[in-house]
């Protein structure tokens, strides 16, 4: 604790007085950096015996597998993610709930997803890093249901337009991922690595909840905890470093190998992260991220869900294309990194009818040793 306090004091002190000295230190240390970004751990005052094993990332916290570790370097990470969705969209346009209720019996109104993500990275060698990730999630959804008979029952026009609201929730372990990251090129100015792996179906796909229709109604696809499938994962990451400025790009995909036990599989997804990070002081960096995400529709269908009833039960209303803008901050204290990122997504296009606006907050703690 004392150690951390001392480092914090040092960090603040450096932040306030030695901005220029930092630039000089960064430059002079770039010579012996390989796969990794220049970082203040190379500074004499904070040098620890195992510092060559630890790597500190400057990428936005929502970008996974952006860096490698040196041989025998470890990293534990915990991320808390809070995502909120609201509003409805059909194709490229917004649609009101009252219009949408002409077509469906039930509609999602808003959804909140909270995730606790745990990650472990290990430097197998200077060229190869292994990574394991899993998460616990909880979903809450408010839905509206069409009330067909209310006009007859009460004789008020207002009642006819007043849909019934109800809430459902689900929680538990989500899917897990195992990844291998392999260095391709690593110099002081730029580095490129590729990654491949497998997503394991540790998340449940049989979640039910009480609704006005049923005591144990099957929940729609977005409320399930996992995919039920083994997915291949792949990607490539490139990072360029110019003194305090870092530019990064990562293209990755996630594609299910075969149908799950319920005879369906989620669509493949492509994600393209682009970011710029700026080292403001030795300890503090800020990030700006732009991500393009393309998800395909599900194939097959869960026989327990009726796609005519609500759009969240429709396997052909799962695909979408979105752009996501994020602003983040990373703060380094010795081996610890604290991060936060806020982001907002807009759907360029959705298949069928889906919830539209997504807003996300991530807080994280990472420990390198
Ligand atoms: Cu790491």
UniProtKB/TrEMBL annotation:
Residues 31-45 have a biased composition (Basic residues). It comes from the Bacteria. Residues 1-24 form the signal peptide. Residues 29-50 are annotated as: Disordered. Keywords: Signal. This is Alpha amylase. It comes from Saccharobesus litoralis.
């Amino acid at each position: 604790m004392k150690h951390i306090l001392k480092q914090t004091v040092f960090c603040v002190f450096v932040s306030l007085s030695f901005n220029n000295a930092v630039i000089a230190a960064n430059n002079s240390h770039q010579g012996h950096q390989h796969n990794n970004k220049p970082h203040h751990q190379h500074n004499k005052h904070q040098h620890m015996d195992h510092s060559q094993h630890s790597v500190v990332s400057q990428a936005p916290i929502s970008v996974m597998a952006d860096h490698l570790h040196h041989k025998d370097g470890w990293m534990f990470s915990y991320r808390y993610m809070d995502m909120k969705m609201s509003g409805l969209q059909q194709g490229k346009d917004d649609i009101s709930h009252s219009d949408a209720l002409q077509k469906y019996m039930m509609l999602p109104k808003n959804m909140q997803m909270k995730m606790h993500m745990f990650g472990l990275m290990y430097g197998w060698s200077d060229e190869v890093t292994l990574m394991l990730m899993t998460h616990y999630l909880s979903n809450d959804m408010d839905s509206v249901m069409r009330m067909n008979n209310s006009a007859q029952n009460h004789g008020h026009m207002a009642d006819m337009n007043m849909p019934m609201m109800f809430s459902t929730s689900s929680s538990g372990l989500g899917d897990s991922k195992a990844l291998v990251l392999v260095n391709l090129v690593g110099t002081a100015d730029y580095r490129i690595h590729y990654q491949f792996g497998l997503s394991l179906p540790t998340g449940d796909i049989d979640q039910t909840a009480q609704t006005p229709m049923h005591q144990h109604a099957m929940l729609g696809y977005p409320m399930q905890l996992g995919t039920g499938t083994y997915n291949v994962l792949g990607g490539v990451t490139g990072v360029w470093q110019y003194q305090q400025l870092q530019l990064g790009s990562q293209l990755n995909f996630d594609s299910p190998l075969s149908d799950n036990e319920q005879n369906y599989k989620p669509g493949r997804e492509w994600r393209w992260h682009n970011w710029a990070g700026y080292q403001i002081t030795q300890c503090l960096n800020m990030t700006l991220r732009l991500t393009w995400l393309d998800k395909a529709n599900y194939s097959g269908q869960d026989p327990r869900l009726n796609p005519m009833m609500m759009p969240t039960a429709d396997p052909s209303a799962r695909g979408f294309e979105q752009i996501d803008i994020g602003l983040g901050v990373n703060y380094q204290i010795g081996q610890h990194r604290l991060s936060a990122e806020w982001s907002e997504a807009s759907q360029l296009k959705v298949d069928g009818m889906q919830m539209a606006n997504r807003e996300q907050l991530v807080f994280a703690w990472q420990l390198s040793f």
